[in-house]
Amino acid sequence: MNQTTKKILITLKEYVIISLGLALYCFSWTSFLIPKGIVGGAIPGLATFVNYATGGLIPVSVTYLSVNVILIILGFLILGRGFGFKTIYCILLNSVLLQVLPDLIPWVSTIEEPFLNGLLGGFIGAIGIVMIFNQGGSTGGTDIIALILSKYREISPGRVYLFCDLVIVGSVLLLPGKTLSDVVYGYMQVIAFSQGVDLLLTGSKQSVQVMIFSQKYNEIADSLINQLKRGVTAFEGIGWYTKEAHQVLVVIARKHQLNEINKIVKNHDRSAFMSVTSTMSVYGRGFDELKGPEKIEWKRKQKQLQGQEKSSQS
Fold this sequence. Notes:
This protein folds into 2 domains: about 5-205, no CATH class; about 205-314, Alpha-Beta Plaits (2-Layer Sandwich), CATH 3.30.70. Helix content is about 65%, strand content about 10%. The protein has helices spanning about 5-35, 40-55, 60-80, 80-105, 115-135, 140-150, 155-170, 180-200, 215-230, 260-270, 295-314; strands spanning about 205-215, 230-240, 245-255, 275-280.
């Protein structure tokens, strides 16, 4: 299989997964939220608010399209053309699915409680969005805002969704005829959606710090480095009961690697003592990349140097 064919198959796989994610996302709206009268967040919610606020003067479609066009342009400039094309595909397919999915899948949630429909709709939508996110796609709107911010700042996409949607759904109270119940049900969808995105998107990146107390620290440290491919730091400690000096091993690893660490330690010393602590963020080789204005400025300087080198060569 040549590189061109392989690239085509990878691209095809990405768009198939994106399409399935969009179908799941739209299903959450057409089967759990819209039929139950639950107003969620995101750009459709903002467009609906503008429509109500102007007495129908500005249609929902106009606001939705206008906001997404602006965000798509930003996506092209900041995230690259590949991102922009996938976003356009997602927006178009999303519009089509919202129109035809109720006819293709006429099933509507039989749960009468709006509270539960909001939770289920929000979490199912989160699963679809994470499928899209993992393939570099976006349904537009707050998705683009989340991806832009997460590129330059260590902020979870779920938090961006939560902040934007809390403002949008809360604005419903400013409209006549809307009650606090409408806002609460909308918030249930928003919270379930944002927490679901964080859980599914960043759950595999959670890290732990493990401290290992054992007389066989040499064997354990070597096995951790060779088998787990993680760095190990040894500190000198004193057991106050025995007054004996020994080495304490410290390992920082992904949460899903914890079981493998346990096996390695038990294989060498079943009487070893271990302490496991969850960590908020870990930056450095093998973990997350530190993002911020300095990184952006560094990239700009690199581009300037490359431009100067090309000019001197020509």
